Amino acid sequence: MRQKLLLCLTAVTLLLTQNVSAQSQPYPNKPIRMIVGFAPGGSADISARIFAEAMTRALKETVVVENKGGAGGNIAAAEVARAEPDGYTIFYATSAIVLGPLLYQSVKYDPFVDFAPVMLTATNPLVFLTTPTLAPRSLKEFVAYAKAQGNMNYGSSGAGTMTHLPAAAFAREFGLESSHIAYKGESPALIDVASGRTQFMFSTLSAAVAMLSDARVRPLAIAATQRSPLFPDVPTFNEALGTTDWVMGAWQGVVVPKGVAPEIIKKLSGVLATALQEPALKTKLAPQGTVLLGGTPAQFTQYMKEEQVRWKKIITESGAKVE
Asked: For residue range 93-103, what is the model confidence (pLDDT) as tens digits?
C-alpha cells in the first residue's frame, strides 16, 4: 500500500514538474491555432493561411488554420472568446466581429470586452458581380434592368457579413426588389452567380479573382477609392454611379482572448509587423487585390469602434436583418 502511495506521489510530482517546465519555456513552445470564422476559399481564409505561413517561419512553431464557419462568423468568435487566454488560440477576425452584435440578439461575445486586439492586417475591396449571361454591361444598366425584371436573387457568404450588408444597402438605395440567399462562404455563393442561380453579389476581390480571370462572373464596379491594378477596366462605384460614398472593404486582423499576457500580444504584434514587410507575403497577397495595413493594438481598437458606428447606420437605414 505504501509503495503504491509513493508511486502516485512520484507521478503527481513528475506531472507538476513537467507542467511548470512547459510554462517556463519561451512562448510559443507548441502549435498555435488560428481560427477563421468562414469556410475555406473565402478572402479571410486565403489571407489567414498566408499570414499563418509567415508567422510559422518567424515563431519557429506551427500556426494551424482552423475553419469554423457559421452564423456570419459568430460561432468562431464565441469559441475564441471562451478559449484559454494563453496565446495558443488566436482569431483571424474580420469585419464580422463588430457586425455580429448589431445583427444577432444572442451573440455570445462582445468585441470590445472579450478580445484583445493585436493588429489590423489587411483589407480587401468589394466588387459587384453579375451572372455573365445577363444583358447589363454597366452598373447603371444593371439598376435599370433589375427594376424592369422585378425580384432578383443575390448571394452572400452568410447573413450579416460584409458580402450581405452592402447588397442590402445597394438594393434599398436604388429601389431594387431582391431576395437574399446566404451561403456558408464566398466560394459556393460565387459558383451560383456564375451558374445564374443568383443574379448578383458583392464579393471580396480576393475570393473572386479566379472567376474574374476566367470570365465566369462579370464585374461591374469595385467599391474602392481607385480602380484595382488587377482589373483596371472595372470602374469604381463612384465612377460608375456618380456617387461619393460607395467605398467598402472587408477588413481583417488578429485578436486574442482577453487576458492574454501583454508580452505575448507584443510578440505576436511584432511578428505580424515583420510579416507585412515580407516580400514573400506581399507577392502572395498582391494577386488577390489585398491591401496591407498594420498599426498598433490601440489603433485597431479605434478602427473597430469607427466601423461599428458606420455599419450600425447602414444596417438601420437599409433594414438589413439576419433571416
From this structure: 999 899 989 98
